[in-house]
# Entry
Amino acid sequence: MTLTETNPDAIAKAAKIIQDGGLVAFPTETVYGLGADATNARAVARIYTVKGRPKFNPLIVHVPTIAAAEIIAELSADAKTLAARFWPGALTLVARRQKTSPTCDLVSAGLGTIALRIPNAAVAIALLKATDRPIAAPSANRSGRVSPTRADHVTQDLGDTVDQILDGGICKLGIESTVLDVTTDQITILRPGAIDLAVIENTLGRRIPPAGDTATVRSPGQLASHYAPHAPIRLNAIAPEPGEAFLAFGVDHQNSAEFEDGFVNISVTGNLEEAAANLYAALRDLDRLNPQKIAVMPIPNHGLGEAINDRLRRAAAPRSK
Ligand code: TXA
Ligand code: MG
# Structure
């Protein structure tokens, strides 16, 4: 890890690190973000490792322009109004993900929606432009600790687990962005934040329901059965039964020849970060084959394994309907 002032050389170096799949902590106007290439599942998986997050919560993807946002998500008329008024700024919009979005599944936790914002900080914008990729960035703290508003907070918390920390001084706002769900006409607030709801309501010309029941249901990770594939899931499987697709992990099952109904090994070397990066795509790929069930091998429950198992339990939970 190197702590650098934000001169053009430092930005260029940081951009290269992100393009190569590394992690860079950078200042925004709200809090410091822990950034990775949002199109690279392996890089995004490292964010979860470094933060020590027990769950794959979907992350905010940062973009430099509204045009860049529209490549990733469909913005409704209201969403465009809000973007025009508040971007760059501390408003995050959760919108429907474009089918052609270059972002990886992991960054939106396998959901059909994605959270986007244009940060209002020169360093962040310079980094986004130099990288020429959307940058996924949660706050740059270890899970459960308070968000960092100065570069040395990041150093204290994450030390040399990140490749570079850009020091842009103190964050102006110091609290995270306000998160709105704009996937439907019934806009709801998912997280109160730096932009006052009243100001947003003024712009829209109507009230926004408080984070009540609707928001809770739409907010991922709250539902027991979340991002479930169509096929039922059988956990802790040692081998598939006839009609079952097989999601393997580790060195014991390396190739598909012996499995007729669909097979993916999410990490032959037993690497949990690689497994996390491959998990959602593997479930989708197997599900597309319409198996009777997807049998899933046991995943060790340490490190990112905890988050993987949390997601798998949700995928396997009894479905409503
Ligand atoms: O100010 C901020 O927003 C900071 C700076 C670095 O930009 N970032 C930040 O990111 O706080 P993060 O990833 O920690 O916050 C993600 C928030 C969570 O509340 C999450 O539940 C919500 O956004 N979120 C992300 N994607 C979502 C989705 N597809 N649906 C619903 N909520 C989503
Ligand atoms: Mg946070």
About this structure: The chain has ten helices and 15 strands. Residues 138-139, 147 surround magnesium ion (ligand 2) (CB under 6 Å).
